[in-house]
Design a protein that fits this description.
about 80 residues; alpha/beta; four-stranded parallel β-sheet; 4 strands; about 30% helix
Length: about 80
């Protein structure tokens, strides 16, 4: 059986958004309204296949180097 991809999620999500991801991937999930600490994010993205993050997370050369090859999804909320 093939292994599931690993996805890092950097902020609290409602179950309706989180459950479908958990059905198809191993999830490293920061379940908090406060931003994930940078050091934790850098550790978690190592070897991950995907990153589902908010605009508050800094996506830069350091993060991309820590991640290697990764797919990104950034979420923004307009009010």
């Amino acid at each position: 059986m093939p292994t599931m991809p690993t996805v890092v999620i950097t902020r609290h999500l409602p179950a309706a958004a989180l459950d479908p991801i958990r059905a198809v991937a191993e999830v490293r999930y920061w379940d908090d309204e406060q931003p994930i600490p940078r050091s934790t994010l850098l550790k978690w993205v190592a070897g991950a296949d995907g990153l589902y993050c908010m605009l508050t997370e800094k996506i830069d050369v350091e993060l991309l180097a820590a991640a290697g090859s990764i797919a990104l999804a950034t979420v923004a909320v307009l009010t």
